[in-house]
Design brief:
alpha+beta; 3-stranded antiparallel sheet; 5 helices; about 25% helix; binds zinc ion
Length: about 180
Amino acid sequence: MILQVARLGHPVLREKAKPLSIEEILSPETQRLIDDMVETLRERDGAGLAAPQVHCSKKIIVAETREKNPRYPDEPLLKLTVLINPEITKRSREKAEDWEGCLSVPELRGLVPRHREISGLAFDREGRKVEFSAAGFAARVIQHEVDHLAGLVFLDRMRNMRSLAYSGELAKFSEQGPR
Ligand code: ZN
């Protein structure tokens, strides 16, 4: 089922999401929620989605980009990742700045600094403990989604709001901007 995405201003986006117990992870409700989040992510051409974005204040994120994602045409493909109770435990000192957008902040893009590499711990949808690590675009997507679980959006991470722009205008006026 495709879910409604909360937009900035909805209080759920500013709440701290709750961790899930193993029983909760394995429950039919959570399994269905994860399926619906993946379906919603694909329908909306996102790269990642966090449960608070679909009005559910729980620590679940999904990420994936498939061939020909029109929102991220130049980025490497990201295989489907489902992380529950994710904790980023290691961050590279080095950061990179790049464009981000968000299904909860429609149309807008901004330059956001993120750690180039991260690793951490989470549970998968079968309730198994997993280690994850990511670099580049994948690391950016995971940091963006984990931020949602803490009630943060990419605007909160921008160093300078002057890069904030509508994607259509960026495509028109900037060589470097996203399409
Ligand atoms: Zn987002």
